[in-house]
Amino acid sequence: MEEIIQKYGYIIYNRGVEYYKNKRVQQVLKFKNKLYGKVIGNFVYDVIVDLKSLESRCSCPYGHNCKHGVATILGYMNNEYVDVDKIVDGLKKVDKEKLFNFILEKIGRNPEFALNFVGLLDDVSELSYIYKQVKNKLLTYIAIMKSGTYIDKNTAKEIGNFLLENKNFLSK
Ligand SMILES: [Zn+2]
Fold first, then answer.
1. Contact at 8 Å (CB) between 124 and 118?
2. Ligand 1 geometric centre to CA of 18 (Å)
3. How many angstroms does the Cα of residue 65 sit away from the middle of ligand 1?
4. What spacing in Å lies between the alpha carbon of 60 and ligand 1's midpoint?
5. pLDDT tens digits, 19-55
6. Which residue, 137, 126, 135, 139, is CA-closest to 169?
7. Which of 5, 38, 43, 139 has its Cβ near the most Cβ atoms within 10 Å?
8. What are the boundaries of each domain within the chain?
9. Residue 158 and residue 28: Cα distance in Å, rounded?
10. Angle, helix 128-146 to helix 153-165, in steps of 10 degrees
């Protein structure tokens, strides 16, 4: 508690407490040493908290060490969070075929999901079509960035996610 007040200041801390008490914390996920929160303000804001330093980043206009960060930490401290590490550990024990069928079902609902797995495949040459698609998307993003036009938060997020999702693929 003391540490949060020190880092965020009393005013923001109190606002965060109010947010937490008013059930504005929609979701908290813990993965490795970070918390990923969704907190309802004027919009639903995405918060990432570093559990070591308690510093937070947020998609709200304030952006850093805000009341949404405090509210996310409080959710975690009150055990209202999903432990993604545990889910990942559980996944390690899931039978390969079961996992495959699950992924297949996801792909059936949204074929684009299959693109996340391209990087796992040994022979990408057979997938030159997908490769071209990924490459084209990347070139589009590069063009946007080079043109110097303003990139809104969602586009920036989309580009970031794209790079992360395809990092194995892109390094081939
Ligand atoms: Zn915020």
1. yes
2. 14
3. 7
4. 4
5. 999 999 999 999 999 999 999 998 999 999 999 999 9
6. 135
7. 38
8. 2-84, 94-170
9. 21
10. 150
Helix 67-77 to helix 10-21 angle (10° resolution) is 60
The kind and range of the H/E element at 36 are strand 34-40
Locate tokens 């510093």: which residue? 55
Three-class secondary structure of residue 94 per DSSP: coil
Strands 34-40 and 25-31, bridge-based pairing:
antiparallel
**pTM for this entry:** 0.70
| pLDDT tens string 72-98 | 999 999 999 999 999 999 999 999 999
For the record, the structure tokens of 47 come out as: 């918060």
Q: Report how far ligand 1's centroid is from the alpha carbon of 43 (Å).
A: 10
Tell me, rounded to whole angstroms, the distance of Cα 15 from its chain centroid. Answer: 24
Structure tokens at 83: 């432990």
